[in-house]
Design goal:
Elements lengths: L1 H30 E2 L6 E4 L8 E6 L10 H15 L3 E4 L16 H7 L10 E4 L10 H5 L1 H6 L3 E3 L3 E4 L3 E5 L25 H18 L4 E5 L14 H6 L1 H6 L4 E4 L5 E5 L6 E5 L18 E5 L3 E7 L3 E8 L4 E8 L4 E2 L1
Parallel strand pairs: 2-7, 3-4, 4-5, 5-6, 8-9, 9-10, 10-12
Antiparallel strand pairs: 1-2, 3-14, 7-8, 11-12, 11-13, 14-15, 15-16, 16-17
Length: 340
């Protein structure tokens, strides 16, 4: 009798999911901007005053533990105050080993049930982290998840276009050599292998998209840091393959997670500003590689998140801790492209 009831409930759940998926397909077609086989493109409106506000959080999915719930609460409070338009996730969305499938309860336990503030029901734009690649990657990318949670959008690499900013989300995990040789973990490389071809196509498409962008601001989002003084530090593969493309195409900001801290590092040979927002839950206290590098503007080895408000003339960036306290502010003038 119990088995029959469970089977019946599962059948109704799948049926509802398929109905929702059909509705989602219609919405997706309206939301998606065809890109003729290149990086997928999406559009998001800006405010009537010409501004755009959003939060950035990474390395969060721990079912509320390690202060994830507290960070989420402050995100709701700050998000409401700033009237954010959306949220960006810099990856490692579900610990320790991604999702097991589209019906994995970890999605609800680490996302739906945690980010409950009304303002956080806005659209989320997410990239994958290395921990996400340890699970069923296609589950996170599946439109079935969006039938449960319409605010969820996670793809390997894609472009988000607004009237003010073009965001370029980059799948950085396949760049990192060690993930392909380390024996301790298994990674889901479906649709990535052959790796060399995958990365060559990604870099080609990204270079073309950046070159053709006419946006006032260009922001690139990835999971791994290009510059960091945290536990993992710089990512040599990104410095070699990705950074030259960013420099050549006037990218303003690079946003990442991976290191479980908050950082602001200025480039010493280009206008690029590097921001790490990887404090969504578990942080690594005292695990910093500090030095006398004058490019380090701010670093905090605790939990938190960041906000950005962008206008045609400038951008205001702020970092917050688990109590919502402002730890660091940075203002950039677009005309001068320098800090004030």
């Amino acid at each position: 009798m119990v088995a029959t009831m469970v089977a019946s409930m599962a059948s109704r759940f799948r049926t509802k999911a398929m109905v929702d998926l059909c509705c989602l397909a219609v919405l997706f077609c309206a939301f998606f901007v065809p890109s003729f086989g290149e990086l997928q493109r999406f559009e998001h409106p800006i405010k009537s005053d010409g501004s755009l506000s959003f939060l950035v959080v990474g390395d969060w999915g721990r079912k509320g533990h390690y202060n994830q719930s507290k960070v989420a609460f402050q995100m709701g409070r700050i998000g409401e105050k700033l009237d954010i338009d959306f949220v960006i996730s810099t990856g490692d969305n579900f610990y320790d080993n991604g999702l097991k499938g589209v019906y994995d309860p970890a999605f609800r336990e680490s996302f739906t049930d945690i980010y409950t503030a009304k303002i956080l029901q806005k659209q989320w734009y997410s990239v994958l982290g290395n921990h996400d690649y340890r699970g069923d990657v296609k589950a996170q990318l599946s439109p079935i998840l969006r039938s449960f949670e319409k605010r969820w959008l996670c793809l390997r690499s894609f472009i988000l276009q607004t009237e003010l900013v073009d965001f370029f989300f980059v799948d950085t995990t396949p760049f990192v050599d060690k993930y392909f040789i380390e024996p301790d973990h298994n990674y889901d490389w479906r649709d990535v292998e052959p790796r060399r071809t995958y990365l060559a196509n990604l870099l080609k498409d990204l270079k073309s998209a950046l070159k053709n962008s006419t946006a006032k601001w260009k922001i690139v989002v990835g999971h791994h840091a290009i510059r960091s003084v945290g536990h993992h530090g710089d990512t040599p593969e990104l410095i070699k393959h990705l950074l030259p493309i960013l420099k050549a195409n006037n990218v303003d900001l690079y946003l990442n997670g991976h290191d479980h801290c908050l950082e602001h590092i200025a480039s010493v040979d280009s206008p690029i500003q590097y921001f790490t927002s990887g404090g969504g839950s578990k942080a690594w206290r005292g695990d910093l590689k500090l030095n006398d590098n004058h490019a380090i503007k701010f670093v905090y080895d605790g939990q938190g998140f960041m906000s950005l408000k962008i206008t045609e003339k400038g951008a205001m960036i702020a970092f917050y801790d688990v109590f919502g306290k402002v730890l660091h502010r940075w203002k950039i003038s677009k005309q001068l492209h320098s800090a004030i």
